Amino acid sequence: KLLGATWQALSLFFPYQTCSVSVRSSTKKNGTWRLIMHLSAPFRSCTNDGGILADDYRLHYKTVDDAIRLIQKFGTGCFMAKMDLKHAFRICPVRFEDWELLGIHWKNLFYVDKRLPFGLRSSLALFNRIADAFEWILTNRYRI
């Protein structure tokens, strides 16, 4: 059960790029295992080097100064919140056309990761786009 439901085994000819992987025990108390795909190794021949341009996926994080400005704008008693989503990237599916970039070979089978993996150069920015869309819907449709 190491790979979980977001992986699909392919026993047929595998024309996909495969990345090296390692497995390590999670530092969490529940004793789960974490599969790590090395998407930047070997240099110049893996997924993060194959056309995912860093400039296309840059993010600018909010700062403490941004939070202070909002508090000053809305005044004492304003409500602010921060969320940390468990496995945030793992809720985002990968397009079928991109499965070829997220393959591994393990125990004589080929597998593809069907969810955004941690370590993929574009994962954070792609998830952030979904979160921004969700925020827009809550703000503009539901006035939350």
Q: Can you describe this structure?
A:
This protein is an alpha+beta fold. The chain is 20% helix and 17% strand. The chain contains 2 helices and 5 strands; from the N terminus they run βββαββα. The protein has helices at 64-74, 123-140, and strands spanning 7-10, 20-25, 33-38, 103-106, 109-113. The strands form 2 sheets. It has a 3-stranded antiparallel β-sheet with strand order 1-5-4, with no helix packed on it. The longest helix is centred in the last third of the chain and has 18 residues, at 123-140. The radius of gyration is 19 Å and the shape is elongated. The N and C termini lie far apart (39 Å).
Give a quick set of tags describing it.
144 residues, alpha+beta, 3-stranded antiparallel β-sheet, elongated
Distance between the termini: 39 Å
* Biggest beta sheet summary: 3 strands, antiparallel
Outline: elongated
How many helices? The count is 2
Tally the beta strands.
Answer: 5
Indicate the low-confidence ranges by residue numbers: none
The helix-and-strand class reads alpha+beta
Strand-residue proportion = 15-25%
